[in-house]
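Quick one:
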Amino acid sequence: MTPNYEPQLQPIDIAELRPTQITVGFLEVTEKRREWRKTAKRHGAEFLGHHMVPVVLGPKERPYLVDHHHLVRALHEEGVAHVLTSIVFDLSHLSKDEFWSVMDHRHWMYPFDAQGLRRSHQDLPRTIAGLVDDPYRSLAGALRRAGGYAKDATPYSEFMWANFLRSRIDAKRIANDINKAVHDVLDLAHGKSASFLPGWCGVTD
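Output:
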């Protein structure tokens, strides 16, 4: 997804943002909270000014967040009330059914639960606070940062990696020590069984 974002300089309340996915990785949210705390005192306003979050306007002009769910959830948990937004597209003139059809076909929604099962758009949480944990999304993010695969423009690429890992490592191992879990799956990430995934950087024959 490479839209041309249009800045909307008026801050918006995080509580008004509608998520377009069901889950985030809570361990990844925790890491982003740590990063914010390092920045907040001296450069908080500058950081927020440079991190406008992309939204699509839906029926009744509700703002639907289409990226940066982890960052916005982290800011929310840190007590930040407002963020700046960038409007990807204005679909406020569409009916609800038309709106969700466009969101699905444009890959602006990811209605999969913490078991990797697709759900109805009606199961999307109505607030950022309603996002639930998928530990495999945390593992996928940590794996990318450790060099397990490259950052890729494919929509929801890290969720694709999360689903690949879901049947290959127990969630308890992630909870006990995510760094060890990353170490345990690095070879797997570079192997041929993962070669279909976006950002794969294994060795070919």
